[in-house]
Amino acid sequence: MDWKIIAATFGAVFFAELADKTQMVGIGLAAKTGKPLSVWIGSVGAYIVVTIISVFLGSLAAKFIRPELIRYIGASLFILIGALMLIKAI
Questions:
Q1: Which of 29, 54, 59, 66 has the highest CB neighbour number within 10 Å of its CB?
Q2: In a domain, 82, yes or no
Q3: Tell me: the pLDDT tens digits for 45-88?
Q4: How far is Cα 66 from Cα 77, in angstroms, rounded to an integer?
């Protein structure tokens, strides 16, 4: 196990997920249902499945595409989605 990679991944995901729409859904559902443990279990389960899929796809992509290209594609898609959201909001 590479603790440096684990720590870097934890930090990146933690700050990327901080105050995003997923947390807003969790807050809303916990407030609405009054069952925070059930909301937490559902949220963690969903995040586990999403993470498994993303790690699998990332490792598969790395076999065919250089990591630098994956980074550029990801950054470009992120910017494109942000721009489209901004245009739609205007």
A1: 29
A2: no
A3: 999 999 999 999 989 988 999 989 988 998 999 999 999 989 98
A4: 17
Q: Is residue 37 part of a domain?
A: yes
**Backbone CA torsion sign across 83, 85, 78, 18:** positive
Whole-model pTM: value is 0.69
Q: Are 29 and 39 in contact (CB under 8 A)?
A: yes
Q: Is residue 34 part of a domain?
A: yes
Cβ atoms of 37 and 54 closer than 8 Å: no
For residue 36, the enclosing domain spans: 3-65
Contact 39, 33 (CB under 8 A): yes
CB atoms within 10 A of CB 39: 19
Which single residue is written with the structure tokens 């925070």?
A: 36
CA-to-CA separations, 17 to 11, 13, 14, 33, 87, in angstroms, rounded: 10, 6, 5, 23, 24
